[in-house]
Amino acid sequence: MIPTTITFAGRSPYYLNTFVYDVWNYENLSQIYVEGIEDGIVLLDCSEGSDIREFLQFVEGIFHPDSNFALYVCTDLKIPKEDIRGVKFNFNKVDFLVTKENANANTLYEYFKKEFKKIRKSW
Hints:
By secondary structure, the protein is α+β, with helices and mostly antiparallel strands. About 30% of the residues lie in helices and about 30% in strands. The chain has helices at about 50-60, 70-75, 105-120; strands at about 5-10, 20-25, 30-40, 40-45, 85-90, 95-100.
């Protein structure tokens, strides 16, 4: 697991109250959008064109002890670091809720494949 490293890039010019962060340790993932927090769950917006495997590694890295994700997000959202319980996002119509307990990129990818297969059958 690689610790996720981000820095504050600014506010989204398109979405009110959305914070933009530069991502430093992933090859094809350069920015992430944080839309807010609900009951301790950080709401992420997946950028179009993101690679699912790399994005899931990013999410797994959020929970690494050396990640600075919580530090930046909590500072910008003005909440205590301990208030973050997980992250929530949607990738290609598949909903994810990731916590420290289930933050495993490989397991999450298997979940994605299973759920996406169900969605494709419904088309």
